[in-house]
Amino acid sequence: MLAAALRHPDVAQADVLFRETDQLDLKFEAGRLKESSRTQESGVNLRVVARGRVGVAGTTDVASAGWEHDLLARALASAGQGEAYDLAFPARRPVPEALTYDPMAADLPVAALAAIGRALVEGLARPGWQVNAGASRAIETTRVINAAGQDVAYRATSISVGADVTRVVGDDVLMAYDQLALVGAPDAAALERLARGIATRIERAERVVPPPAGGRMPVLFTPNGSEALFLPLRQALSGKTVLQGVSPLGGRLGEAVFDAALTMTDEPLLPGRVGTRPADDEGVPSARLPLVEGGVVRAFVYDLETAARAGAASTGHGRRSVFGKPHIAFSNLVIAAGRAAEADLLRAVGSGLVVDELIGVGQGNVVSGAFSHPVALAYRVENGEITGRVKDAAVAGNAYELLKRVRAVGKDAQWLGGTRHVPPLVLEGVSVAGR
Predict the structure, then answer these.
(1) Of 115, 288, 362, 416, whose CB is crowded by the most CB atoms within 10 A?
(2) Is 279 exposed, middle or buried (0-12, 13-18, 19+ CB in 10 A)?
(3) Rounded Cα distance, 333 and 268, in Å
């Protein structure tokens, strides 16, 4: 495909992504295996620079006659309406080793995957609890080649398993969900930890207590409950928002913006994590990238397009699907854990809240950092102990301001979605209100 594109007289540069996926999904409802499905797909994404403009097209119809000609024609048509910028593809160079593939996971039979799902379901079996679960195995083959000579190919596997529990008592509906994702299959201990974490959240919430009096107070955000804090930072650290002039962190490289307890790093080479890869989807070799160190902003992430527009270098954070142009994406985003155990964190709260899940995160002006959300799952803390669940409360604040006031960081970090490592943390001065 690349050779065909470069033979066209209008094409000065081009790159091609080939991706093949094989995914098996199992679903359990009310504790029983309900559904299984398997999806297999191969596709090609072609990007060309034609007459100084960039065009992109993709196809999964790679078995039909003339598909290469059709794909090139659509890419050229896209370039005809595309934007002009100086896109520099990476030259041929070695990429680092990255543990992305587990042969045992790739060969995992359906019965073994089902056993993983059943083990999680059985670990959550309680009277009055409805348990739904899912388990999936994915195998992905990726190859990126370009006109500058870069050629990267690798295989990746992932096994993911998750469950949600619903408990209904009268008009009180209580739900909790969690999941894990790894390159290889989780062992019994990992499944037990996952089940125990979900069960603990339900058990702590069985007793309902009044919310605290409104005002500003310390709040413990669990990893699951911290999305309102870290979603704005992920967007603000994107080179695209910096380029657009909307990032609150733009122009602040080298400044101490946050509490010294906050350190964030993008780690694309961590062994066995599902965000790990030797290169990004544009062929740029992967490397560890400190983003925030001790509260100081150190870097933004770029793909080839945003780097070209900003006069910067790509940091190897281009992600692309078969259809559409590349976009910026983190690999394994790691927020450094602290040393505090849960009991220490609760003592640091004293009297306040534990926020485990919020409603409506991601709506509104996320980049600004301001948030105001009702709680979906939260616990009241009195004298350093959890006393029960609060139902009618909301929390508000600004992520950038609150992350300047970190009272404690927990040691028990979790991987969210398999790609974000987030510890629990206690922040001072969070606005809490009854509803």
Answers:
(1) 416
(2) buried
(3) 8
Read off the tokens for 91: 């030259």
State yes or no: pLDDT of 74 exceeds 90.
yes
In this predicted model, what pLDDT tens digit does every residue of 204-221 receive, in sequence order? 999 999 998 889 999 999
State the helix-helix crossing angle for 110-123 and 188-204, rounded to 10 degrees: 30
- Element holding 233 (H helix, E strand): helix 227-236
Is the predicted pLDDT of residue 170 greater than 90, yes or no? no
Sheet holding 289-293, edge to edge: 296-297, 289-293, 264-266, 333-335, 420-422, 414-416
From residue 30, give the alpha-carbon distance in Å to each of 14, 62, 123, 128, 409: 50, 40, 13, 11, 37
Q: Could you give the domains of the chain?
A: 2-202 (3.30.2290.10), 207-435 (no CATH)
Other beta carbons within 10 angstroms of residue 122's beta carbon come to: 12
Please report which helix (H) or strand (E) contains residue 239, including its range.
helix 239-244
CB 32 within 8 A of CB 114: no
pLDDT in the model for residue 61: 92
**Residues forming a β-bridge with 169:** 172
Answer whether 119's CB lies under 8 Å from 135's CB: no
Give yes or no for residue 380 having a pLDDT over 80: yes
Alpha carbons 118 and 69: distance in angstroms, whole number: 48
How many angstroms separate the Cα of 347 from the Cα of each of 210, 220, 340, 350, 408? 20, 10, 10, 5, 10
Of 31, 201, 272, the C-alpha closest to 130 is 31
Q: State the virtual CA torsion across 395, 398, 403, 409 in degrees, nearest 10.
A: 20
Distance CA 262, CA 350 (A): 22
